[in-house]
Amino acid sequence: MPEHFKYRAVGPDGKIETGTMSAESSTQVLDYLSEQDLTPVKVTQLPKKKALSFFSFLERVDYDTLILFTNSLNTMIHAGIPLLRALRLIKVGPRNGRFNKAIHQIRFSLQSGKSLSESMSEFEALFGKVYISCVAAGEESGKLEEILEELARMLEEEMELTRQLKAGIRYPLMVVGAIGIAFIVLMGFVIPTFVTFYNSFGAELPLPTQIMLQVSKIMTGYWFVLLAFAAIALAVFRKIVSNPKGKLWVDKKILKIPIMGDLIIKGNVARFCLMFRILFKAGLPIVKTLDILTDSVKNSQIAKEVNHLGTFMREGRDMGQMHKEFDYFPEISLQMIAIGMESGSLEKMLKEVGTHFTKEVQYTSRQLTSILEPILTFVLGGFVLLMSLAILLPMWNLIKVFK
Question: Which of 90, 258, 264, 388 has its CA 20 to 30 A from that of 141?
């Protein structure tokens, strides 16, 4: 399995260059630097990053760059340009960006006798397991050009799906974040200043102001305790999600969140069908395809059901009854997959299911926004009202004192 390395090297002009790359060993990194006429100063293996579970279904992928690379490679192969020369010509994103460095390393691996898919597997974080498996199937079947065209189309559909998912949660996150920042500023700076001013006149503080004052005292006097508690809570959460059973439990709870859980399920099912279709069209056996997709699905509960689907097919059980054993996969998707298997039109059915649930994601995103909008407006209004009362009521008392 490729590891990630950080390097620091000196160029021919004496300038220091730094960067990261994936490689089997530090020796491979040194060979790469030597080919680039760079003198290595330091090569360090980076620790593996553990992603948080809550928003793992929105894991960031550089779709634009990957689509541009796929289309460029497809165009050059279609034009009859040899693969090595095509990779030498392709430049995507920043000139010294990680993608161009990966392309160069892929070309280096091809020259050493590896296939394109084997070379790409050293950069699984950039391309993804599904992408690499499709390329491998295309190489084996001699249909690489056709597979690359399908991959570009799938990536565009997946990019649009991801944008719709993000659009569904962006508004509530922004409002909650704004309320949180405003609360910290008011409690930490505004309220204490006003209270000091009011006390100098001997005015009696009303109940809302007294409540805000106590909260402010806790935040300003014990901020280090609150910060330590937040750090411990985050560390415990990371520990839980780093364990397969803990991650399974967290992902299960996430899927039970009203509307949000439904959005995640539909997004994962749509993505699953898009990837299943392209792998099936590439000629991979269905059981192997499902094994690959088990690792590619972001939510571990849904990944568990994908694995169960593979077991179902491996054992040759009745496909018409399989929906009874699934908790999260929508029944309609399982029934259409079963019909596609029985009628020999699985590719068409997967396309239909993927399109249907992509539209469902779009609808659910709008529904989520429309439901949360009045709730968040009410919460925001209540927060503003409480703050206004805490600040303005003492002013009215001051007017009485002055009179």
Answer: 90
- Report the 10 Å Cβ neighbour count for 261: 17
Using CA atoms in the order 315, 316, 321, 327, what is the torsion angle rounded to 10 degrees?
Answer: 40
* pTM metric for this prediction: 0.67
Q: Distance between CA atoms of 339 and 148, rounded to whole angstroms?
A: 28
